[in-house]
Specification:
single chain, mainly alpha, globular, transport, cell membrane, transmembrane
Length: 310
């Protein structure tokens, strides 16, 4: 119960950061167009630094086994979400933004600070499993969906700063290599601004939207119901039952970290990628802001259900 309450408190903090972005646009200090510069900063500089920084941990049999469990659970989670979208997509008429909003969560921008605050810095390492799976799918499946073409540009994927950072992080982890102090401080510095900068972007885009109109829209409520209730609650039961059978000493918290990522609101990157690929940025932001607000209630309840089962 205590973990659920701590989770709720940290989500409120994230929401307040987004509110600042909303205010600075409404008051005229910034224009909504300025958010695109911040989007590129987060996607191509800050987020790669998060990936590298997360792998700066000692390789032991325990951490390797725990990471393997987390990767399998993360892959299963994404497969489950993709299947849900495939099954419900045609009867419910999902568009491109809705499909990726249901599948891709705020694992990087929200989960890392949440795990750090609720469980402790030493557990942030296991968030990389979900980030690993989600990053690969983001720059393949997610981008293909937003483009509307079932094609994969291998060169673009391999040369993407996020994938390069992922490869560097894995090499450093497996090789037991620690970054020099000066370089480590630089990487950590960019990592630390990911969450507030991402929330500013969302708030700035929302600042150009009539919130009364936002909450009068019926469609985003359906997307949020699937993203925040149907998928995480179902997966909470599955992980809770699976956790009883796994022998690893850290199973409960490792699976909880994956569940926190699954139960997170819509990925902030969806709004940013919508800008990059000329999709409906406002609609993506509407779904995002609604999911952030509602997750204040749904995420703690999801974790509470998991704790009761495991």
């Amino acid at each position: 119960m205590e973990l659920s309450l701590l989770l709720g408190e940290q989500i409120v903090v994230i929401f307040l950061m987004m509110a600042i972005g909303y205010v600075i646009v409404k008051t005229g200090f910034f224009q909504v167009e300025d958010s695109k510069v911040l989007s590129n900063l987060v996607i191509y500089i800050c987020f790669p630094c998060v990936m590298i920084d997360s792998f700066q941990i000692e390789l032991t049999q325990r951490t390797a086994a725990g990471l393997a469990i987390a990767v399998v659970a993360a892959a299963a989670a994404h497969l489950f979400m993709i299947v849900v979208v495939w099954l419900l997509g045609k009867p419910l008429g999902f568009n491109r933004i809705e499909k990726v909003s249901i599948i891709y969560t705020n694992a990087g921008y929200l989960v890392i600070p949440l795990v750090s605050s609720v469980l402790g810095e030493e557990w942030v390492f296991y968030t990389t499993a979900f980030l690993l799976v989600q990053n690969i799918l983001t720059w393949t499946h997610c981008v293909s969906v937003l483009k509307g073409r079932n094609e994969t540009d291998i060169k673009s994927i391999l040369l993407n700063p996020n994938m390069i950072a992922l490869a560097i992080g894995l090499v450093l982890f497996v090789g037991g290599i620690r970054l020099p102090l000066i370089l480590d401080s630089c990487v950590a510095g960019f990592s630390n601004v990911v969450t507030p900068t991402s929330m500013l972007v969302i708030g700035m885009v929302i600042g150009d939207v009539d919130l009364k109109w936002v909450f009068r829209q019926k469609r985003p409520y359906l997307i949020c119901l699937i993203r925040l209730v149907l998928i995480p609650m179902t997966f909470a039961v599955a992980l809770g039952l699976a956790g009883r059978m796994l022998p690893h000493a850290d199973t409960e918290y490792i699976l909880m970290i994956v569940l926190i990522a699954v139960a997170a609101p819509v990925a902030a990157m969806i709004t940013q990628l919508a800008q990059v690929y000329d999709q409906d940025v406002r609609y993506a932001s509407v779904i995002n802001v609604m999911s952030v607000i509602f997750c204040i209630i749904t995420m703690p309840l999801t974790i509470l259900l998991y704790e009761m089962i495991i």
